[in-house]
Queue: 2 jobs
Job 1
Amino acid sequence: IVPKDKYPVQGDLNKVISYETQREIFLSKREGGKMLQPIDMNGFSIDNLPLPTANDHACNKVYVDNKVNSKADRSDLDDYMKLDGSKSMTGNLNMDNNRITNLPSPYFSHEAVTKDYVTTVMNHLPSLFLDRQGKSSMLGNLNMNNHLIQNVKDPDNTDDCANKKYVDSQISKANIKPSHTPKNAFKYLMDDVNEWSSEYNIKV
């Protein structure tokens, strides 16, 4: 091999390779170079690798061991939740004041919901519930289920609800008497000793 700048060359020129040709065939220890084919190490190792600083750098054993030791052991994988959702949580998840983002719209009632979903539901609530200030009206009959309606004021209009006090006072003012006649105690006496009578005057 003719070293750089060692011309003219003496001897058999058929056995001479120039510096430029040498750079095309061999890797320079000083200049480096790029491989054109894979390297077969034939069972030998590559020694003295530094710690990698880029993703495409070769790694030495120390770097790999440190990375593996910082990861979970395969025997402990049951304690971790997989990203594909095939394993479920076994305890409460503390978000430590962090957010859960990119939630889809809920389908089942037990699913987490987004702020937009809650806002939409809240905006729709006035049409489903009776407003306490009287700004909305009923859309169906109200079943009190045997409970009272209390603190009803005296009615002003003919279609207003009336309280008992108001009804009693109106009956008293009109001097309305009961429509049924008082019961006659003698009505329930038997005609003879072999008969008996009920309140409905059924004789046997």
Job 2
Amino acid sequence: MGYVNRAVLVSVLTCVSSLAVATENAVLTVSGNLPIAQEDGNIQFSLDELQAMGTVTFETTTPWTDGVQTFEGVPLAALVSALQLEYGFLEATAVNDYSVNFPVDEAMAEGPVVSFLRNGKPMSLRDKGPLWIVYPYDSDADYRTEIVYSRSIWQLDRIVVKE
């Protein structure tokens, strides 16, 4: 099952399937073609729920910051697994409505992370937060391309799952 502890996954899916996810603390809304049916078509995640999926931390430089940065977040692979997605595309959209599309299968081990901490601190809207899809750019030349940079969306607040 990779990144997600089975007990954590069951807990997250139980909350999601019972619509127990609190909307007032939501930092990420996921909608669209979801295998987990919801009455209103949305699944909302709080920061605590994202953290419960398991987090990773890595250091990397980025084209948008100075020097090496430390990022902590939930692997996109863990989020995709919790949503039970096997194929399709993710349309990730920021607060300012900037959006990018990428295939679900890009959410692989050692790949992108939905980061909620940079250098040990939460990110404000002014500081590319509260969520930023970040890749470990320094770990692989494949992560230093214009396509990957365009998918590194900050101020992320919603994802639509498409076929």
